[in-house]
């Protein structure tokens, strides 16, 4: 075995050990948001370490969102700020339609893309907020993602909640915790709604599709997460280091339940 291979295996094994020590459940379901730059590791090695920690009975899930094919997304609005009508039209005309098998999700980071491209990985059908997963529960978790429900009861987040999944923030903060969005859907009705628009090609022909869904807002998630951690009397949140990344691990049910109460108190004017 060459020195490079020995070093790679050691890196994977060390990371898997750190994940076990943090509390990742063997045979469980794990939703991961990760920064490989913070971790000081390559995405392929970290994906292997995560799957090693989960074991053959575990399922690894990542967000594979695609704001790049929408003209109502925050990323699009940032790109066109200051541009003229002609430049905006050209940008819209060049947007590729969503394809669950081939559309990249560059904004989600290297680990998410690595998992999405893993042999046997499954991806949900939503053209804006899909998830990718690999493992025995992948099909069941991602199968029923309704295309007009970003992150609510008809999305993989609700299936992850039902499965008592864990959430790992690997080198990222609570501002990246997509699980909190499920709590937005669980606030008392009527919920504020808005129009969303993206490019799809369900019959092989490119077209724009507009639909309505809940207004999603992660602007206060960092503060929400800080309060979640400060009020964690039961030790639900476990903190540690994976690679060189400060990381947090917690149950999705505890996070969503806390967020639902917190949002209900802090967003009264938005309900």
Word description of this protein:
38% of the residues lie in helices and 18% in strands. The chain is built from eleven helices and nine strands. It has helices spanning 3-22, 36-39, 43-54, 74-80, 85-93, 110-116, 138-142, 156-162, 179-185, 221-230, 252-266, and strands spanning 29-34, 59-63, 122-123, 131-134, 166-170, 193-200, 207-214, 238-242, 245-251. 42% of the residues are buried.
Strand order of the largest sheet: 3-4-2-1-5-9-8
* Average pLDDT score: 92
Overall outline: globular
Major sheet summary line: 7 strands, mixed
Question: What percentage of residues falls in helices of 4 or more residues?
Answer: 25-40%
Number of helices: 11
Structural class: alpha+beta
Which residues sit in consecutive blocks of at least 5 with pLDDT less than 50? 1-10
Order of helices and strands: HEHHEHHHEEHHEHEEHEEH
Topology:
Layout: H1 3-22, E1 29-34, H2 36-39, H3 43-54, E2 59-63, H4 74-80, H5 85-93, H6 110-116, E3 122-123, E4 131-134, H7 138-142, H8 156-162, E5 166-170, H9 179-185, E6 193-200, E7 207-214, H10 221-230, E8 238-242, E9 245-251, H11 252-266
Parallel strand pairs: 1-2, 1-5
Antiparallel strand pairs: 2-4, 3-4, 5-9, 6-7, 8-9
Helix pairs in contact: 1-3, 3-6, 9-11
Précis, in short:
The protein is of the alpha+beta class. 38% of the residues lie in helices and 18% in strands.
Structure keywords:
two-stranded antiparallel ribbon, 271 residues, disordered N terminus, 38% helix, single chain, 9 strands, 11 helices, 7-stranded mixed beta sheet, 18% strand, alpha+beta
